[in-house]
Amino acid sequence: MIDTESFSDLSVIMLYLGIFLLSAVKLLFAPGAAIASGIPATHAFIVTSLGACAGIAFFYYAGHWFGNKVRTWYARYFGPKHPVEPLEEAPRKVFSKQKRLAIKIKYNFGMIGLALLTPGVVSIPIGSVIAARFYYHNRWMLPLLWVSAVIWCLVLTYVSAGIKRNLVQ
Q1: How many domains are contained in the chain?
Q2: d(C-alpha 163, C-alpha 103), whole Å
């Protein structure tokens, strides 16, 4: 529990804001950090859930917007305006580790698996951008990500609170 006499109002606000921002980027560490800093479990759950949902929405829409801009730019500069001389053999596609991971997640886990893995295992920014890339036009993708984030927050917050309670005793 936060002792209001030892903290000023501004430092408590900054603590909650820091937990909010941490949960928007890497949810796995946010509930434990919130509990360790003395925030009550219910407050930690609410702050981390709101931060995770805000982070998912931001990176989902930003990833879609940025992806469209990159594809438009690529088509403009490397599209049909600049024909490439035909080769005898078609060049082999080169896949980076990031592309290979995104394709593997999409085909092995699908939409629901991606939603379940994004908040805890894969970070929120990476998972949200992958979801926006492959499932942007599916109206259930963003709500699935939010539900998954709230479930992860609930589990991680109360596991962290239980660990702290056992360590203090």
Answers
A1: 1
A2: 37
